[in-house]
Structure formats: structure tokens, C-alpha cells
Amino acid sequence: MQIEASQHIVQSINEELKSIHQLNAEVIDLSEIWQHISQHCQADKLTTNVVASYRYYQSNLELTRNIYELLNKLKLVQQSYQTEINTLLKAQ
């Protein structure tokens, strides 16, 4: 029973990892768009828009870093459950 519960958690985490990876790809795309907008505004000397769009770009970079941290923490939890599964299987 404990093995099955742990296997379910490992699978659930795996599904979450996939979803978060997809969202992270979207954040990276948006970051590139904001960077492009900022550069375009800079070329047109639209200072206020440069600052605003650059802040969005920076926010997206920070979000990407936070997402990577979350992914790493989820992988660590997943590995812990997988280790538990392996240990329980050996004990049988």
C-alpha cells in the first residue's frame, strides 16, 4: 500500500513537472518579446516605455529563475519518494 501511494506521488510530480516546463517555455517566450519591445522603444527614444518594458523583461527573467528553483525542488522530492519505493521493494 505504501509503495503504491509513493508511486502515485512520483507520477503526480512527474505530471506537474511537465506542466511547469510548458509554462516556463511560455515565460521565456514572453521575456524575449518584452526584451524586443524594450529595444524597439529604445530605438524610438520612448524612454518611459523602455523602462516599463525592461521591467517586464526583468520580471520574467526572475520568474524563470524561480520556476527553475521550483523544478529542482520538485525533482528532489520525487527522488526521495523514488528512493523510498526502491527501499520498500528491496525489503519485500
Give structural notes.
The chain is built from two helices and no strands. It has 92 residues and is an all-alpha fold. The chain is rod-shaped, with a radius of gyration of 20 Å.
SSE topology sketch:
Elements lengths: L1 H42 L3 H45 L1
Helix pairs in contact: 1-2
Short description:
The chain has 92 residues and is mainly α. The chain has helices at 2-43, 47-91.
Give the N-to-C terminal Cα separation.
Answer: 12 Å
Structural class given helices, strands, pairing? mainly alpha
Give the low-pLDDT segments: none
Please tell me how large the radius of gyration is: 20 Å
Number of helices: 2
Major sheet details: none
Measured as a percent range, the helix fraction is over 70%
Order of helices and strands: HH
- What is the general shape? rod-shaped
Q: What is the tally of beta strands?
A: 0
